[in-house]
Amino acid sequence: MIELADVFRRFAGDYLSVHGATMPPSHRHAIADILACRTDVLGGSLWHCEHCSHEVFSYHSCNNRSCPKCHTKDTQQWLAARQAELLPTTYFHVTVTVPEELRELLRSNQRDGYGLLMKAAAESIIELCRDRRFVGGTVGVLAVLHTWTQQLHLHPHVHCLVTGGGVSNQGRDWYPARKDFLVPYGPLAKLVRGKFKALLADSRPDLIAPAAAWTKPWVVHITPWGNGRQAILEYLARYVFRIAISNTRIIGLDDQTVTIRYKHRKSSRWRTSRMDGHEFVRRFLQHVLPKGFHKVRYFGLWHPSKRQIAARARLLLELERTVPPTALPAATADDQGPDSAVEQRICPRCRQGRLTFVRWLTLKKALGP
């Protein structure tokens, strides 16, 4: 299988020679980390099979959030921890997409632009849901930032998981949303646009957006997502931990080009796209976020300051405080790597013998950009 690291080994050097002086540090670190991931550069451990004497070298992961081979353990632990926060209610999936006129402005000011976009989307949902015509209470919003299309084009949008109901101001009452309806599309789109414009003007008055961005309609989608624990786990697995491209979608690599597969949105059929290697690297790196930027944020009932109110809401909905982590999504093929065989302690060659630890492998060299 062709991996993202293979593409970087072939094209990243030339890309760095052209753009290295102007690249953000996060881009340089992403390249270095992905190239080093699960190689002897990061060190690891040596294991020996008791049955066939086969040696297994298990190298450490880079833990870069843009790497398609990392975070399986962290993902499962994070999902297990989130189960304690679930509410036994319906959920809605809300997607907010910015117009094309704002894309380059956001790309050039990721930390401020993307953060304000997530805040505007979540606060608009909460404000409309507090209207008695719709929900009448404070809902919980988990916002996740995505910036890509299937072909890695820049397409900033926010996915929001919203509780199908909210609590009163004092947190004593629960107001459920209507079946298959949260808030109207039009007012939500206008409110998000207005809030983002105001937040941008207040926080970054130096940024001037094209006038068309404030006159054309913004795209908003609202979809009933389901009920209870499984609904939110499926959402988290599908949206929270996704990266721009997985290794399984890279299907071709030569000296000049990279070929990926993507799902055509209208036909829902898989197609292929072939592009110059330099262009592939450029498209991928534009989705690498600045260091320390939180692409998952909590608002409303799920905000850390509302923990007591959320706990009262769970009691109101008769949800047990502890839920055993038995329904966690299974790891995908992209998550499987050299460490998987070691964790199971079964030899990958003979599939019979057990692996025993021999020694630690030291770093080959210091990690750098």
Give the helices and strands, then pairings.
Blueprint lengths: L3 H16 L5 H12 L7 E6 L5 E5 L12 H11 L7 E8 L5 H6 L1 H20 L10 E9 L5 E10 L1 E3 L6 E3 L8 H19 L15 E9 L1 H12 L9 E4 L3 E7 L6 E7 H9 L10 E5 L6 H10 L21 H7 L10 E7 L8
Antiparallel strand pairs: 1-2, 1-13, 3-5, 3-8, 4-5, 4-12, 6-7, 9-10, 10-11
Overview of the structural elements:
- The protein is of the alpha+beta class and 369 residues long.
- It is globular, with a radius of gyration of 23 Å.
- The strands form four sheets. It has a five-stranded antiparallel sheet, with helices on both faces. A three-stranded antiparallel sheet has the order 2-1-13, with helices on one face. It has a three-stranded antiparallel sheet with strand order 9-10-11.
- Residues 319-343 have low confidence and may be disordered.
- The chain has ten helices and 13 strands.
- It has two domains: 4-64 and 333-361, no CATH class; 80-244 and 287-316, no CATH class.
- A hairpin with a 5-residue loop joins strand 1 (44-49) and strand 2 (55-59).
Which key features would you list for this structure?
single chain, about 375 residues, alpha+beta, 2 domains, 5-stranded antiparallel beta sheet, 3-stranded antiparallel beta sheet, 10 helices, 13 strands, globular
What can be said about this structure in brief?
With 369 residues, this protein is α+β, with helices and mostly antiparallel strands. It has 10 helices and 13 strands.
Number of domains: 2
Between the first and last Cα atoms, what is the distance in angstroms? 26 Å
Mean pLDDT: 87
Please state the structural category: alpha+beta
Radius of gyration, in angstroms, nearest whole number: 23 Å
